[in-house]
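pinned: reference chain
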Amino acid sequence: MTTLRLATVHARYSLLETVRVPIAVIGALVFPSLALLFFVVPQQVVAANPLFATQAVISMSVFAVMSNSLFNFGISISEDREKPWDPYLRTLPAPGLARVLGYVFSIGMLGVAAILPVIVIGGLFTAAEASVGRILLGLVALAVSALPFMLIGIAIGYALPSKAAIAVVQIVMFGFAFAGGLFLPPLMFAPWLDTLSTFFPSRQAREFVIWAVQGGELEPWIWLGLIAWTAALLVLVLVLFRRDEGRRYR
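pinned: its C-alpha cells
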C-alpha cells in the first residue's frame, strides 16, 4: 500500500472519530459564522461597503482556518500521544509521513467546511463581492497561509499534555486573532499596534488573502513573514517530534 493510500485511510478514520463527537464539528463550523453574523452584519458602515465587507469576510475565513488548525492539530496530537493506540501505530510498517498527511487531509477538510458558512453569510447579508476566479485564488492563498497555524498546532501537540494544550491553544488563538486584525480592522489600531501586528502570522495571512481576492500591491513583509514563520516552525516541529520519539521509543 502506498504512502498516499495509507494517508487517505488514516484521514478517513480520523474524520469518523471526529464526527462521532458532533459538537466538535459544530464548534468549528459555528463560531466564525456567529462572529461574522453578530459583529459584522449589524454594522452597516462595514456590511454595506463592498471593500470593507469583503475584507471582513476574509478576516473571518482566516480565523476559521486558524482556529481549526490550532485546535485540531494541537489537541488531537496531544491526546493521541496519551493513548495506548499511538505507540501501537508506531510499531506498524507505515512511514510517519502517512500519519502527518492523514492529519493534514482530515483537518484540511474540516477547515474547508468551516469557511463555507462564512462565505455564504457574507454573500447573503453583506455587500462583499469577488469574481469566481478571485475567490478560487483566495482559497489557494488561504491554504498556503494556513501552514504556520498547522505547524503551531503540531508544535503544541508534541510539546504539551492535552490539558495544557487546550489552554495554550485558546491563548494563542485569541491573541493572534486580535493582534492580527481578524476581529478589528488594522485601520482602528494605534500606530504602534499596527506596526507590531505586521509581525504576527495572522496579520500576514489576512493581508495575503486580501491581496489574492482584491488585488493591489503585495508588500514584502507579508510573504517574507509567512516564509519565515513556516521555516522556523518547521524546524521547531522536527525538534519536538524527535524529542518525543527519543523520550518514549528509546
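why pinned: The mean pLDDT is 86. Residues 32 and 64 are 6 Å apart (CA to CA).
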